[in-house]
Amino acid sequence: MKELIETIVKPLVDFPEDVRVDASEEDHRIIYRLSVSKSDMGKVIGKQGRVAKAIRTVVYAAGSSMQKKIFLEIVE
């Protein structure tokens, strides 16, 4: 799943080397934390959060076969 998130985000940003995805697993959920360069934050979020919503939709759909709920957080 980390590779999927990186594959989606890296072409969108100016500094792909700064893209990091960290995962933490709890009882019935997996939280992926996406961090990008501060100057690329707007590109990942998009106007009115549309890009972020689209990324989350793809990630949630890819993880729907897992038995755990998946969350994607975009952090600075």
Automatic annotation (TrEMBL):
Recorded superkingdom: Bacteria
Q: An example Gene Ontology cellular component term from the record? A: cytoplasm
The entry's localization annotation reads:
Cytoplasm
**What is any one GO biological process for this UniProt entry?**
cell wall organization
> Which keywords label this protein?
Cell shape, Cell wall biogenesis/degradation, Chaperone, Cytoplasm, RNA-binding
Cited Pfam families: KH_KhpA-B
Gene Ontology MF term list: RNA binding
For whether the record's keyword set contains Oxidoreductase, the answer is: no
Q: Which PANTHER family match?
A: RNA-BINDING PROTEIN KHPA, UPF0109 PROTEIN SCO5592
Q: What does this protein do?
A: A probable RNA chaperone. Forms a complex with KhpB which binds to cellular RNA and controls its expression. Plays a role in peptidoglycan (PG) homeostasis and cell length regulation.
Its quaternary organisation is: Forms a complex with KhpB.
Q: Which protein family is named in the record?
A: Belongs to the KhpA RNA-binding protein family.
Please give the name of this protein: RNA-binding protein KhpA
